[in-house]
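Below is one such protein, fold included:
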Amino acid sequence: MGLFGRFDGKYRPWSEEKAGSSDTFPREEVFMKEESSRARRETPIIPCRDRVLCPVCAVPNAVWEEVQAQTFVRRCSRGTLLGKAPGQRGLTVLCQGRVRLWLFGLRGEGFWLFELEAGRILGLASVVTGEPWPLMAEATTPCLVRTIPQAMAMRLISEPSVASGLLRHMGEEAIAAYEGLARFLLARSARERLARCLLDLRAKGAKDDLNLSRSELAARVGVSPETLSRLVSSWVRDGVLERRGRTLRVRDWDALAAVLEEL
């Protein structure tokens, strides 16, 4: 299937995999319809103004009053997609929670790039360039987000106390996306991609038990769930991996490292 994996948002136990199953990633527009039903539009108290988690929180009081007047805050449940409809470019500030960034293919396939935590700002590149934001953010935990319309976003970009911080966020997002794509585009096989992905997860603090469904891991590796199942089954037979109900356990990290050394 090439670069893109497919994820349907369903959490399947590894022990219940069936050969030839067909997972499909819902297209972007489906999630956009779900957003309005899942998000409760309200104005809760936001602690970020006191903690200064992002550049928007650090604006002078006069500008902050403008931000408050021209933006709205809402809570989003896990699984909500945060993004703008075509032609409605603006910023989304992640005040609380965690999101996963996806890159979609032409047929709706999704590739999981990386995750962001509270304090990050989504859509900066779109506001600066005037082009549609190429990514979509999925809430992996309950989130609190502030939506900033394009006119106010342009006002913030021209604000000296905010501009440098916003540009830094945009640069960090771009570099993370480049690194995520390069890591897999430069891999010579799906086997190498999976080994590198698991080792990267360990470097970021993952334990032996991986709390990822088959579809989620496939999207992160950039392969179809069927291809991932074949790779996992092979490594289970070799004693490198082990299926434990909803969990995939790594039994031999050294064997995974050896896969990269062989290439």
